[in-house]
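Subject: mismatched residue count in predicted assembly?

I count 1173 residues in my input, but I want to confirm that the predicted structure covers every chain. Input:
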Amino acid sequence: MTTTTFGRPKRSAADLLFDICNTVFLLVLLVLTLYPVLNTLAVSFNQAQDTVRDSTFLWPREFTTLNYSTLFQDGLIYHAFFISVARTLLGTVSSVFCTAMLAYTLSRKEYVLRGPISFIFIFTMYFSGGLIPTYMLIKNLHLYGTFWVYVIPGLIGAFNLIVMRSFMEGLPESLVESAQIDGATHFSIFLRIILPLSLPVIATIALFVAVGQWNSWFDTFLYNSSNINLSTLQYELMKKLQSANMSVGGTAESAFASSKNIQANIVTPASIRAAITVVATVPIIVVYPFLQKYFVTGLTLGGVKE
Amino acid sequence: MSVTVERVKEHAKIKKRPRKWSKLRSQKALMVMSIPFLVYVIIFAYVPLYGWMMAFQNYKLGSVMLENEWVGLANFKELFQDENFIRVIRNTLAMSFINLVFGFVSSIGLALMLNEVRKVMFKRVVQTVSYLPHFLSWVVAANLIMNVLSIDGAVNKLLVSLHIIKEPIMWLSEQHYFWWIIGASNVWKEIGWSAIIYLAAMTTIDPSLYEAASIDGAGRFRKIRHITLPGIRGIIVILLIMNIGHILDAGFEQQYLLQTPMVVDYSETIDIFVLKYGINLSRFSFATAAGIFKTVISVVLLLAANRMAKRMGQERLF
Amino acid sequence: MSKKTALTWIAGATLALSMIVGGCSTESTNTAAGASKNNSAEELTTFSYFVFDPGDNVPEHTKIGDMIEQKTGVKIKYERLVGEKEQKVGVMIAGGDYPDLINTDQTVKFEDANALIPLEDLIEQHAPNIKRIYGPYWERLKAADGHIYALPQVAPTGTPIKGISAAFWIQKEVLKDAGYPKITTFDQYVDVLRAYYKKYPQIDGADTIPFEILTYDNRNFTLTTAMQFLAGGPNDSRAIVDPVANKLAFYQTDENVTKRYYAKLHEMYREGMIDKEAFVMNYEQYLAKLSSGRVLGMFDQKWQFQTALDSLKQQGKANRMFVPLQLTFDDSIQPDYLDVPSMNYNMGFSITINAKDPVAAIKYADYMASEEGQLLRNWGVAGEDYTVSDTGRFYRNQEQRDFFADPKNGLKTTGNILWYWPGSSGTMADGNSYQQYQQPEEIAAGYDEMDLELLKAYGVTTYEELFDGPNLDRKYFPLWSIELTEKNKVFNQKLNDINKKYPPQMVVAKNADDFEKYWNEYVATVEKLDIQGWLDELTTKVKDRQENW
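Triage response: the counts match. Full output below for your records.
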């Protein structure tokens, strides 16, 4: 598997020094990147008013689960969670499959439309027709107010396409040619040979797409905001955050009776934001190890038999 | 593996005979697999481009696009003649360039280092943790950064205790630090995430190459230089070209959240400018004109970068 | 093999899922269309109502909401804003997807798109309560074309309510330590802060911060408009209005106002009285500093630092909380801190062209504006949500206050949404306040011993009494609510940008010469803008308001 574990039993001094430096450096990076994560976790479990005075701590000072219970207080969020899972699964599978298929055709050097299609896709990365024309398009296509608006408009991203194409171009040309001679069609070559060989890049792109799908709330805002049945988790979380912002701003409605009692059950945007970050990130962390094995351990071409 | 390769080579020899009809059929199959997506991208990405007409109009919300007053290039003129325009472009280019260089070097570096780790568990942990900051919103990240950089923050405490500086420094009040703070915080937030793609690319490198190199007595650095880096060169070049096209997209959120009144001359990007004078004032025409300007620059740079890659015999986009 | 089966499995699961979801979405449209099936909703007229303010999802059933539904036979389906307001307005208008009713401050854009129906005839014919409440302001409600399209939330009625927002704030402990002196000028204020700072250079082990300034992003108005109050202006904008002579003075480059203030701040900064980090911290850091208890004073609007007050209270540092002062440059200037009771005209509740039964909609709104409706919305049910004293005064007893201190209970009772209907502010005929939170009994209930001691020392019973009433000559008030042309909106944005950059430089300038240099640069930059064009438009519009309102 990894490229360096085999070899001679003894290591040279230079090798050892390299490993030490490498480990030390990675440990420093580990600390630097772990700090914000622990801090966010601590803030999310800390009482909001206590966080206001100082937010640089790694362990909750005044433990509470209020920030979370505020997020989950209305039942809608569970349904929204289901929709988010559905769109992430469906969106990722369909996007990765379509992107890979198109990338395969574009990786074929003999394909006459290879250049023009690549060209047309690449340019989409650098322009946008703007919010309103896009919105009108979705309406006219009758995607407005449907679940499919989460899947179809993002089906193929130019960036992902090019990365996949570039990966597939690196695969040995001979594999495809020999299969062709055996009479395989392009579709079956793609399905049987290229797809399994591309698992590392597929895992990578799947991760990118899934994270994008999972974190997306803007399409819900534009196309399904009135349709509570198709609301997504991120959109509901966004509502909570803005609601917390609003009550700090102090509309008449939220100006509760001044009470001499400590208002321990009030949340602030900062604490809600921390809880939201945790809620939104945990599923990704749970799923990640399953994808990770494809690009950390890696696959070797030799291991796959056609 | 070697068996497969040999068999493939045999087949390759046989294949030399040109067969026109099979080629045509093969093209047809490829077309069936790709043309639906061509139609798709034209509908979803190119059709909304009619919105660009707005840039040449005085667009009123709720009106029919063609019925608006046509103003020619007035919106572009206003954009280019604004006294802040040059400053904003300078800042955008500077920060983009710093992000580009730092981002590439750091994430490739991390991927190389992770690739050299022998302990699988340690490798996995570092990799997982290092990509987590990507999931923090910039609001959360900016708060952390501002706390760390404050007078009694961690950075000042560390530097003072190491006697590198005598007095705490107000990092965010110094104009000339701002670009570098943006660059550094970007690296910190995205390094792990950006490294993923290179790690995936490294999995395709044939392990027998390393084996052979080891037998030849090559050290770690030589293996990195002569095997790993060439193995991922393709993806590096491709990403580089694509990113050069994004040079005017320095973003706005990060700068907006980290800027202070003391550094505004160095922090405002073109996106912030458009946000303030376009979208926030509901001036859709002005915002669209700025968008077109950015697209034109992007496309020019993209083509230039691609051409250069072609000249240098590297991988290229199209 | 495992890969292949995995792929098949994923494909199968995806297909199954897509069917479930597909079914789900068609189902949802069915239920939306045929909502009348369950319960006795056949007689219920339903309106969709979009409120352009963020907030929690409004529960399907709330205590007060259900009562009103029973009385009126009308059901309201609320939706609240999520995301950017401008974008939402943009796509709503572009697509013509209007709900039946909306509540927004972007009314003008909807008017321009012909999305709203005129309300004046509907009100005359079907809405006596609305007519009674809004009648006195009839002309002011009219849009440029002479029609009324929007009803602002609350119209002032009876005795106007005094509410303090913008003020120079000072720590209670500082006042107590100084023996509750009478402070009326900015110089006196600074002297009191300085004396305390000299006496206690540290609070709870951290350096005392005598004066704090919030300069983060658009919240920097606490730096750049504070001087208008010192010069006797109200919470207006960038000009001080003389309502009698109908004259506007742009004060941002005025040596006697703006320069005087910045020069004083510059002196204070050099003296170490202003937080060194005032110009490099963000909003949350500002709140953290206020919450630490070591900030002695600042200029701000109360809603911006309420969180810090809550935090101080929670930490048991009530003595470090802040008290408002109305300061001027000198005693010859009449302070004008309190807002003239007014409405945000041409904003609020509107009926769109998509509403099928506008008459039923205005009738419902009229019920909400009736005495019965307003009592239910603002106070709730007597004996349950509030108590009536022997003398007829409304208040909440401790149990009720504790109940409503939990936001969840507020949501269950009213859905936190019933405020968004036409109604009144001020006092009812019996002297009680329409709004619960404005009732003096409710305000006083929040005071602790230190407050009472302080108020007693100044011979008043509420903080509001420390302030002079608003200047009722200012019929136009507020200046910032005047809708400007695009050119002058750009002027405002440019001025904001200039104001973001220069004033901090003046304050932190190395010496008096540098200060002078930055001031001159600032003035020169501002004067490049078309100040006169901006003043002209405002002068015309103020004159118009003063004459017609």
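Residues 1-6, 12-16 of chain B have pLDDT under 50 and may be disordered. Marking this ticket as 'not a bug'.
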